[in-house]
Amino acid sequence: MSRSLKKGPYVNPRILKKISKLKVDDKTVVNIWDRSCTITPEMVGFTFGVHNGRVHTPVKVVENMVGHKFGEFSPTRKFVTHGGRMAKDLATEKAKKETETAKKATVELETKK
Question: How many Cα neighbours within 13 Å face the side chain of 78?
Fold first, then answer.
C-alpha cells in the first residue's frame, strides 16, 4: 500500500544530510540501512550501499529510479535455480557450446593475423 499523498514520500533526512556534503558523481559509497527510503532527484548520480541484511549492495542512482525505494534494488534473497538433473545437464551443454564458439572465434582471429 502506498503512502498517503498528503504526507508525501518518506525520505530519511540523515541520507539527505550525507549527500549534501558530497559532490555529484563522487565515487564514495554512502552506506544506508533504510531500505524504505524513497529515491529523490537530489540523489541522482550518487552511489549508495544498500544493506540487504548481510552486506551493503552498491546501487548507482540514475534518473529512472526516482520515486522508487532503495530496497527494490538490493535483493535480500539469493535465487537458486529450479530443476534437478535435467536443468543441470542443459546448463553444462550450454557452457560447452559457449566454450566451443569462443575457441572458434580465437582460431579465426589468429588465422586472420
Answer: 5
pTM of this prediction? Answer: 0.70
Q: Which domains does the chain have, with CATH numbers?
A: 13-73 (3.30.860.10)
pLDDT in tens, 55-113: 999 999 999 999 999 999 999 998 877 888 888 899 999 999 999 999 888 888 788 76
Identify the sign of the CA torsion 108, 90, 76, 38. positive
